Amino acid sequence: QYRAAIFDLDGVIADTARFHFVAWQRLAKEEGFAIPHVVDDRVKGVDRMASLNIVLEYTDRGYSQAEKDALAARKNGYYVELIKALTPADLLPGAGEVLHTLRAAKVPVGLASASKNAVPVLQALGVLDDFDYIVDAATVTNGKPDPEIFLKAAHALGVDPSLCVGFEDAPAGVTSILSAGMFAVGIGEKDLLADAHEVFPSLADVSLARYFQL
Ligand code: BG6
Ligand code: MG
């Protein structure tokens, strides 16, 4: 039996991956180039600046670090605008139920998201209070696939990493969970998340009783 659950946000709890992609698309278009759809998967779990660097692979133009900072800030402005429309209806299937079941069973719940917008997103979805600890992405030195963010969450929850289950929709996130020594549950497509211990299409397909004392 495991003792704590640690969730990624975008693509696991919140239906926000599409908003990140739309914001990157808008930025690229304004800069005079197009990004292919694979960028949607490539930026999953990847922090803001690293995501920008992936987007900029699709243009020949070089940007200074100051210009990159401005581009990242611009993209974030578009993203923040898009997430203003979020409501509890944007919780991904099963997310609300899973969080409430864990709460009722007194299983500690953490959030390990690369997003600096995690708190407002959770607030808009109405599930902020369902988390015992939210890692501040701004304090993470090494982003996913490094285990740092999942280890920080486990430490704050006071649970040994080997007794934690991590939930992720991104390959980089699954690697982060595995390197942290946790049980990895992939949410999404099996071929994309082949390294995870188990993969389910959504949180609605996960049977919590297999991992936790409910
Ligand atoms: C992750 C997303 O959760 O957060 C990435 O999967 C995103 O696509 C990253 O780049 C950083 O988000 P933000 O909100 O800090 O720009
Ligand atoms: Mg994600």
TrEMBL record:
Cytoplasm in keyword set: no
Parts of the chain that traverse the membrane: none
Entry keyword set: Isomerase
Record-linked InterPro entries: B-phosphoglucomutase_hydrolase, Beta-PGM, HAD-like_sf, HAD-like_SPP, HAD-SF_hydro_IA, HAD_sf, PGP-like_dom2
Transmembrane helix found in the keyword field: no
EC assignment: 5.4.2.6
Enzyme class: isomerase
Molecular function, one GO term: beta-phosphoglucomutase activity
Signal peptide from the UniProt entry: none
SUPFAM superfamilies to which the protein is assigned, alphabetical: HAD-like
One family name in Pfam for this protein: Hydrolase
PANTHER family: FRUCTOSE-1-PHOSPHATE PHOSPHATASE, GLYCEROL-1-PHOSPHATE PHOSPHOHYDROLASE 1-RELATED
Family: Belongs to the HAD-like hydrolase superfamily. CbbY/CbbZ/Gph/YieH family.
Protein name, UniProt field: Beta-phosphoglucomutase
